[in-house]
C-alpha cells in the first residue's frame, strides 16, 4: 500500500471513530509503552492496534513513548484481546512539491506484514515494547 493510500485509510478510520458513541462498545484497556528503531527511541509516529473484529485503536508515538491510544473516546485505550500492530513514521515536507519521507521501513505500516502483535488485557498495565529494525 503506498503512503497516500495508507494515510487515506488511517483518516477514514479516525472519522468513523469520531462519529460513533460508546453504548455497547468493545471492552477497552489503557495501553502505553515504547518504540525504538535501530536501538534509538522513535522520535514521532502513529501506532495502530488492529483487533480481529471491530474498530482499530490509534495512538501517538512521541520521543519513543506510546501515548493517547484511542478507540472511541480520547485516551480510552485499545480493544482487549489479540491485536496486530502497525507503526508509521513519516517526515512531512513543508514544500508541496517534495514528497513526505518514510522514517521506518514501510512493512511496519501494514499490520499483516509488520510481525508486531500485542495481547491487550483487561485490568492490567498493558505496557508494550516494540523494537523496530531495518
* Strands, count: 12
CATH architecture type: Sandwich
CATH class: Mainly Beta
Q: Uncertain spans, ≥5 residues at pLDDT below 50?
A: 5-12, 14-22
Instruction: Please state the oligomeric state of the protein chains shown.
Output: single chain
Number of domains: 1
CATH topology: Immunoglobulin-like
Task: Describe, in plain words, how this protein is organized in 3D.
With 134 residues, the chain is mostly beta strands. It has a single domain, classed as Sandwich (Immunoglobulin-like). Helices cover 12% and strands 40% of the residues. The protein contains 1 helix and 12 strands, in the order H-E-E-E-E-E-E-E-E-E-E-E-E. The chain has one helix at residues 3-18; strands at 28-29, 32-37, 40-41, 44-50, 57-62, 65-70, 78-79, 81-88, 90-91, 101-102, 116-120, 127-132. The strands form 3 sheets. Strands 2, 3, 4, 5, 6, 8, 11 and 12 form an 8-stranded mixed beta sheet that branches. A hairpin with a 2-residue loop joins strand 5 and strand 6.
Amino acid at each position: 500500500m503506498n503512503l497516500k493510500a495508507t494515510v487515506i485509510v488511517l483518516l477514514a478510520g479516525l472519522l468513523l471513530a469520531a462519529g460513533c458513541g460508546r453504548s455497547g462498545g468493545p471492552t477497552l484497556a489503557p495501553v502505553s509503552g515504547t518504540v525504538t528503531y535501530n536501538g534509538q527511541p522513535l522520535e514521532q509516529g502513529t501506532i495502530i492496534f488492529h483487533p480481529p473484529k471491530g474498530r482499530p485503536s490509534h495512538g501517538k508515538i512521541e520521543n519513543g513513548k506510546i501515548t493517547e491510544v484511542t478507540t472511541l473516546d480520547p485516551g480510552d485505550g485499545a480493544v482487549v484481546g489479540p491485536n496486530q500492530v502497525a507503526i508509521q513514521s513519516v517526515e512531512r515536507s513543508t514544500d508541496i512539491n517534495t514528497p513526505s519521507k518514510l522514517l521506518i521501513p514501510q512493512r511496519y505500516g501494514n499490520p499483516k506484514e509488520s510481525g508486531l502483535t500485542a495481547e491487550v488485557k483487561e485490568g492490567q498495565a498493558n505496557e508494550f515494547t516494540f523494537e523496530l529494525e531495518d
